[in-house]
Design a protein that fits this description.
Layout lengths: L1 H26 L4 H27 L5 H48 L4 H29 L1
């Protein structure tokens, strides 16, 4: 039961953080950039707390006989976190790249229709970042087993 409570605390914190950032941006108190930076900082804080909590739970003296069996699970769990981070961060980076390149491509195409092919290449390069992150996470998952 305690495990579920400890699992729900970071989830509740992240949900509250998203709601708080949305409310501040909607009211005009904060910019979108500061809200995104605040979300990334809160995600890093929750991830650090969860990682420290799991390390402390594995290092407990009463868990010594099970520590050897849990080491394999810990390695697999950390590889899953690494795969999720690779996909998530590359998706965020790809979204930022496409968010900047797509409006510029539309503007260039509206001025000169011949520039469509060149503009599309820059948008596709931004999406390629997300695909590379997905490929890296697939490689991590396939090597974790």
């Amino acid at each position: 039961m305690l495990e579920y409570v400890l699992l729900m605390v970071p989830v509740a914190f992240l949900v509250f953080s998203v709601y708080h950032a949305y409310k501040n941006v909607a009211l005009g108190k904060r910019t979108r950039k500061s809200a995104v930076l605040r979300q990334i900082a809160s995600f890093a804080a929750v991830g650090t707390v969860c990682l420290i909590t799991s390390m402390v739970a594995l290092a407990a003296p009463e868990a010594a006989p099970e520590a050897a069996a849990a080491a394999g699970d810990l390695n697999k769990g950390i590889s899953m976190v690494a795969a999720a981070l690779a996909t998530g961060i590359s998706g965020i980076g790809g979204g930022i790249a496409v968010g900047g390149a797509a409006p510029a491509a539309i503007g260039a195409t509206s001025e000169d229709p011949k520039a469509f092919g060149k503009a599309l290449i820059f948008v596709a390069l931004g999406e390629g970042v997300a695909l590379y992150g997905l490929l890296v996470s697939i490689l991590i998952i396939s090597n974790a087993g």
